[in-house]
Design a protein that fits this description.
Elements: H1 2-13, H2 32-38, E1 43-54, E2 57-73, E3 87-101, E4 104-115, E5 122-131, E6 134-142, E7 146-152, E8 160-164, E9 168-169, H3 170-179, E10 187-192, H4 195-200, E11 208-217, E12 220-227, E13 232-239, E14 246-253, E15 258-271, H5 283-287
Length: about 290
């Protein structure tokens, strides 16, 4: 099985480069296994224990990854109440990060929306950060180009509108792992890093050069992105078999060779969480190891 995986990966990778992207969308062929798992009316919720560097010290926290399929309006780029010719199926990832810095907490939420009908087709990203000093909100919409709006509490960042030609984004690669990991791009890439990472570090929002690699060891793949200009290395570890569960990730400072963050999976459940909002449904938090 491993030899088959590497054979298919080699074929795909040999065809991929950041300068050979087609403007004509290619349709996705979803397997029966994929449809059975992702279109069962439930969300996949995974919890992780987090170590996060902030202000020069490591902090403890947690992360929740919520993957769920939804109907998405193509023009308005919002969730559709009902499926229609105006909507498409997408895979949504909500990434929720919580950690404390001394007396006050950080709450970070990043949502990405990737089409399940067209290959390599990001639709939208939103990211928000709340802490006691203030909060920020960023939104990226992808149509004929990338449009980014930034609203921030901090001087020099407030009410910005940015336009870019189509480029890869870090967020969509997390969904690529779950949809079709054999299509993960490798080599030299032009990529917009995670919006919440750029905002946390007050960095310029733009595509950066990165080197992407895919390694295999002990039945796990590790997908890495090395950003020399950002002094950052990201490694995402995931299982080699469907549904390619994300086991955890790490970030490193390239120059100092120190760890900036790490997350390790605690548990995963398939739950229709939007129906579990009554008193007593807090028990589901226990099953997800979210309560102290």
């Amino acid at each position: 099985m491993i030899h088959k995986i590497f054979s298919s990966l080699f074929l795909v990778f040999s065809l991929i480069s950041c300068s050979e992207q087609t403007l004509n969308p290619e349709k996705v062929n979803l397997s029966k296994e994929f449809k059975s798992y992702w279109f069962d009316g439930k969300a996949e919720i995974s919890t992780y224990i987090l170590s996060q560097s902030r202000y020069g010290e490591m902090r403890s926290g947690n992360v929740v990854l919520i993957f769920v399929t939804e109907d998405f309006l193509k023009k308005e780029q919002v969730k559709a109440n009902i499926s229609s010719e105006k909507s498409e199926s997408i895979l949504k990832l909500n990434r929720i990060v919580n950690f404390l810095t001394g007396i006050y907490p950080y709450h970070i939420m990043n949502s990405s929306f990737v089409s399940l009908e067209e290959k390599e087709s990001l639709r939208k990203i939103t990211a928000s950060i709340q802490e006691w000093c203030g909060h920020t909100y960023l939104q990226l919409n992808k149509k004929s180009e990338l449009k980014i709006k930034r609203h921030s509490y901090f001087e020099g960042e407030t009410d910005q509108e940015l336009n870019f030609k189509n480029a890869l984004t870090e967020e969509e690669l997390w969904s690529t792992i779950r949809i079709n990991p054999s299509s993960l791009p490798i080599g030299n890439l032009n990529i917009i890093p995670s919006l919440d990472l750029l905002q946390l570090n007050h960095l310029r929002i733009k595509p950066y050069q990165a080197i992407a690699k895919l390694d295999f060891k002990n039945n796990y793949f590790t997908y890495s992105l090395e950003f020399q200009d950002l002094n950052r290395l990201l490694k995402i570890k995931f299982k080699n078999s469907f549904p390619n569960q994300i086991e955890g990730w790490e970030e490193f400072s390239l120059k100092e060779n120190i760890q900036l963050s790490s997350a390790n999976r605690l548990t995963t459940k398939k739950i229709s969480y939007w129906q579990n909002n009554k008193l007593g449904d807090e028990k589901y938090r226990d099953s997800l190891l979210l309560n102290p």
